[in-house]
Fold Phosphoribosylglycinamide formyltransferase.
Amino acid sequence: PRLAVLVSGRGSNLQALLDAMASGALAAEVVGVFSDRPDAAALQRVGAPMRWSEDARAFPDRAEFDARLADAVQACHPDWVICAGYMRILGEAFIERFRGRLLNIHPSLLPKYRGLKTHARALAAGDSDHGASVHFVVPELDAGAVVAQVHIPVLAGDTPDTLAARLIPREHALLVAVVALATAGRLAERDDVVYCDGQPV
Ligand code: GRF
């Protein structure tokens, strides 16, 4: 199976996917890495022929950037499109084009804390439990059906940074596990319900 991976920053989730492929834990191939930020460190994790980036901020509107991105992603014929630290909101046209094979990792226990600053918001709310979710992407932000989540405890003295640092290795494992299910053909979404091996999750 062919994966397109969308990134905006450091790319540690992308690296986890690449490492899992290299070790044989994940039978898939990254065929393209796409970014809205040409300076994203994540882009350096793959060879130049696999990279695509345009500065989204240089585009007059979201729809135009989205159309360009969608064409570039489509050109590599992915089976799955994985948002792995992709920080720009995807437009409806992009999402409809890849719907059902478009996954995102989000650093909160959805439906809590859609959007940004999830660690700070969990701390501010006094949560004792935090985590990350992998979900199918739908037009409403971070609102698609959740495939799986990982939980970590919030500890006394945690800051957004300590929480994020403790969560990130668990995010990596979660993302690899879900992508492994997806690429094995075991995962599907229909009418906002996730199916694993044909059974609703
Ligand atoms: C991760 O916490 C991801 O959940 C969030 O942004 C971070 C990206 O990290 N959306 P990286 O770029 O994969 O290292």
Q: What stands out?
A: The radius of gyration is 16 Å. DSSP finds five helices and ten strands in the chain. Residues 9-13, 42, 84-85, 105-107, 132, 168, 171 surround 5-O-phosphono-beta-D-ribofuranosylamine (CB under 6 Å).
